[in-house]
TrEMBL record:
This is Secreted protein. It comes from the Bacteria. The lineage of its organism: Bacteria, Pseudomonadati, Bacteroidota, Cytophagia, Cytophagales.
Amino acid sequence: MKKLAVLLISFLALSSCQENSSEDVLYTGSEIEYTLYQASDFDYTGLLTVRELMGGELELEIELQGEKGDDAYFFPAHLHFGAYDDVDAPMAHMLEPIDIRLLRSTTVLGRLSNQKDLSFEDFKSFDGHIKVHLADSGPEYQVIIVAGNVGSNDNSPVNFDRSKMTLCSPYF
């Protein structure tokens, strides 16, 4: 019985010394953040966090700040080629919609619409932007609630002018 108690205490002591959480094992530690700016009269701002997963894939997490809702409703989000104010900025990848109850979405980025895959280093030099829409169809689709340049494009607040926001096609 004494040996069992010693083994149990030893096991507990060793297991409590582990510093790696399961989250640490998922990521390489490479991470970059981009601000998402209010793009309409809807009072939302946000943050895009890009993390490199251990397998080399990229995880894009969008977290909005603003009013949450109690009912299920989702804001569509897209990664586009070009800057937010480019007239011709095709969609690069459809992202997971943002749940209004949590104001958050997470997407593991797959192959882009141009058939290319992005590494973490590629993303840092990617010519692109993020747009989050009010709705996935109808007139509300044309309302962009937040947007921001990513990659090589200037993401500074001085460079963002919501009056220069361009609309995007609902087609992928």
